[in-house]
Amino acid sequence: MTSKRHIQQLSESEIIALAKKDRKYFGTLYDRYFERIFRFVFKRLGGDEDTAADLSQQTFIKAMANMEKYEDRGFPFSSWLYRIAQNEVSMYFRQQKKNYSVPIDENRIQDVATEAEIFSSHMSMDDQEKLVEMLNGLEESHLDIIELRFFQQMSFKDIAEIYSVSEATAKMRTYRILERINKQWKNEE
Amino acid sequence: MRKFTVNKDKKQLDPTDAQIKRHKDFSRLHHDYEKLTKRGKKPLYRDPKMFLFLFIIGIILLLIFLGEM
After folding, report:
1. Nearest 5°: phi and psi at A49?
2. B18 at interface of A, judged by CB pairs closer than 8 A
3. B7 and A104: CB-CB below 8 Å?
4. DSSP code string of A131-165
């Protein structure tokens, strides 16, 4: 019998190995990552608590059901969970008949503008709305990266782990999208 | 599809600790998981081999019962 305290002392890969054999050990992984996944989903949904709870639950059920398929490829277990959560939320958005509105704080929009070298000082509400409209016109995959970096405020390392790429690749992809935003902004001015 | 908007209403976009605590429940998750994974299991009588086995047992019991009468 493995006690809860004993499990807590095990390494992540040891807990994963135990959870693959018996799902009751998945509880330790759940305790460790629930908050991060719930926060992530909650933010992606723009603060819809009940849906965030359902989709987080769905994320962990899928993870539990697919534990055998999980392979340690040098990225943390959390990046696998983020990927499942990312897919769950995207699927939810696609299932909506009407557009699902996700509010974004002004500071976060300002961050995009600063990094895209559009504005360095405070933006007017009109400019913020113009930029958000431009973001809404981006390809889904590009918007996901902008969302992770600026709205979820993730580091390049975290983004790289979610996409299973190197940190340099994550950085390069982000800056290419920002460059495109910059060009589009200047063309519309 | 999703559509981003400026958060003019100052909606809370980060969950509070109370909200996180309210939804963190591994026993519910485990229960839901069990329900989901066991749902597709066939009942014993729908397994052809098991059905035959149960049928033969039933016949034997019936014959014993009739023999005793």
Report:
1. -60, -50
2. no
3. yes
4. HHHHHHTS-HHHHHHHIIIIIS---HHHHHHHHTS
pTM: 0.82
Q: What is the pLDDT of residues A156-187, one digit of tens each?
A: 999 999 999 999 999 999 999 999 999 999 98
Q: Where are the domains of chain A?
A: 11-95, 106-188
Tell me the average pLDDT across A61-81: 92
Q: Which residues in chain B touch residue A26, judged by CB atoms under 8 angstroms apart?
A: 26, 30
Buried b (16+ CB within 10 A) or exposed e, A62-91: bbbeebeeeeeeebebbbbbbbbbbebbee
What single letter denotes the amino acid at residue B16?
T
Class of the A11-95 domain? mainly alpha
Question: What's the distance, Cα to Cα, between the start and end of chain B in Å?
Answer: 74
Class of domain A106-188: mainly alpha
- B23-56 residue pLDDT tens: 999 999 999 998 888 766 667 777 888 889 999 9
Size of interface A-B (CB pairs under 8 A): 103
ipTM of model = 0.83
One fold for A11-95 and A106-188: no
CA-based nearest distance B51→chain A, Å: 30
